[in-house]
Amino acid sequence: MPPVKGEEWKHVVIVDEKAAGQAKVKCVYCSKIFVGGAARIRNHLIGGVLSDISKCSEVPDGLVKILKDEVNQKEDVARKKRRNDELDAATRGPTAIPIGDKSTATGGGTGLSQTTVPGLFAAQKGGKEAADRAIARFFYAAGIPFNVAENRYFKEAIKAVAACGPSYCPPGRKVLGTTMIDKELADVKRKTEAMMKICTSQGVTLVSDGWTSVQNRPIINFLMVSSEGAMFLSAIDTSGKEKNAQYIAEMLEVQIEKIGKEKVVQVVMDSAASCVAAGKLVMKKFPSIICSPCTAHCLDLLLEDIGRLQWVGAVIVQGHEVVKFLTNHQQALAYYRSHASLELLKPGDTRFATQFIMLQRLQQCKDELQETVVQKEYKVWVNKPKYREAGSRVSAVILSTAFWENVAQVVRLCIPIVEVLRLADGQAPCTGKIYWRMFQVHKSVAEADYLPAQSKANLADLVMKRWTMLHTDLHAAGFVVDPEFQNFLQHENEEVMNGFHAMVERVFPGDVQLQVKAIEQHSSYRSGTKPSPIFFDVLYYFLLTVVSNHFVLQLTARS
Q1: Is the pTM value of this prediction over 0.85?
Q2: C-beta separation of 393 from 319 below 8 A
Q3: Domains along the chain with CATH numbers
Q4: Category of 243 on φ-ψ map: left (φ > 0), alpha (ψ -120 to 50) or beta
Q5: pLDDT digits over 429-478, tens only?
Q6: How far lies 239's CA from each of 242, 251, 253, in Å?
């Protein structure tokens, strides 16, 4: 798994990934370009021991304080870890301390020795090896996934047990299901209330989605998303209710009032007709809130539309037949694995994008698949009456030049869409980036010279249909203020600027002075002249929030 980049990377734009072995980056505040990693970025933003990198003169004071606090916190954690390691080393086993001889520290002295209490207990019970085996045996016997060992709560529990000593007796099932769960629930409520106060200071997005429980009950979930992460608000059992626009809008209004209508930036829901109609009712009652369909859902619908095209659907059916035949027969799979290092991927039930990921993996394993079906042992096995009919079709598909040409076309066509889908599924702020990436998707379809003119026209219509479903003024405003696109010519695009101006008017209805102030601030920023310092705070908050562009505009205008 690739390393996760720290918070400092949110304040630079990567210009070149591999310049001099490190990334070449551009500061979003002063536009300085330099080569370096996390340490050099931090030194540029807050100043430090590196003398060859100058401190940014435009970085907001609030950001400097936050980053310094993060550095100090990491240093505190490192110090505590060193102390714990030293304590562990001192108490890991029997520690010889000569009785009555104080010269031990200088290496002298002999005689009888005593052990520390933890060391004595470890020696009697077999030490660390016995403890590790007991924990491992618990994992194996209970069927617990091994990644639970990395869970911080598991580690905290082990430390707490060690601190109690050998006399500790764990709680029983009754205590776990009553007293302890009540205490934990109260603690979680306290933490979520504190988190809500922090989150709502930057603006939040209300997210709603429906699902069916194992008891076949229709449930609607509500979550609050901000720069601090996602927080569960409530789940409502809608059994026996007609989930029309009015009902959904009423439930959303309850959650909005619970958070605070002035703190909610956006509401994200499914793109079903009732949800779209409910969104219009919510925006009518709360003019400052934007209701948007789920980006990932709209993109998955686009891929589903493409999959319904006759020539694309035929390729998917053939690819699925190949994967199903090989993975459902152990002998065939064994022959394939003797040639390949990559496993074949089965498509999922809920995401149509997995159909195209399946085709991409088939394309990667083309040579290994063809080697498998021409193998003498495979031919003998597949010629058995039980497998002959299906096996002959699969072999013909794998050896077909036309099939692989069609697979290459479908993969080349859909990979840009899948990449946007992955961007939307991530945790990084991407509202403005979605606008630009969808433009690139439409451009890639228009430039697909490997497709007939009629096919390109049909595909372009499908892309525009789903982009029309997804697009909001918030996407346009995000594209305008995203530092990644600072030097783009958004002011020449009528649709983009209309969306940006519409968002300004939505946030400041009737206040022309503040509207003009917001637009002037953006013009200064785009032209490269030095705007008000508050505008750099605007960029900072935009980078930290997922979709809170309302908050960006509010900070801009108030400067």
Answers
A1: no
A2: no
A3: 7-85 (no CATH), 116-170 (no CATH), 191-293 (3.30.420.10), 303-467 (no CATH), 472-558 (no CATH)
A4: beta
A5: 777 788 888 888 988 888 888 888 888 888 999 999 998 888 888 888 88
A6: 9, 14, 20
